[in-house]
Design a protein that fits this description.
Blueprint (H helix, E strand, L loop, with lengths): L1 E4 L15 H10 L2 E5 L3 E2 L2 E2 L2 H6 L12 H29 L4
Length: 99
């Protein structure tokens, strides 16, 4: 499994490879994770359970996948994350809560 922490300039990614569901949850608590790529079969929980416990689900893909579609889905996920981030900052500013 791969966790992609927040990096100021995308597509320069920082990559975390925790190796188990529990370690992934620990790493996600320590980093601003924007993207999770995981297999269904991981130690300690399922690959479906992990993203549900970490964050909102953006998209699921099945294997085998098309590499171009995977890249497009990753781009879409970052675009979605950036839009949500901007919206959250705007709402926080309106209520006087700096993010």
């Amino acid at each position: 499994m791969i966790l992609i922490p927040s990096i100021p300039v995308w597509p320069t990614w920082g990559v975390l490879t925790p190796g188990s569901g529990a370690k992934a949850l620990q790493r996600a608590a320590q980093h601003d994770v924007q993207l999770v790529l995981t297999d269904q079969r991981i130690p300690q929980m399922t690959g479906t359970e992990l993203p549900h416990r970490m964050c909102d689900i953006f998209k699921f893909m099945t294997k085998p996948w098309d590499d171009d579609q995977l890249r497009a889905n990753i781009r879409d996920a970052f675009t979605h994350w950036e839009a949500v981030s901007v919206k959250n900052k705007s709402v926080a500013a309106q209520v006087g809560d700096p993010l």
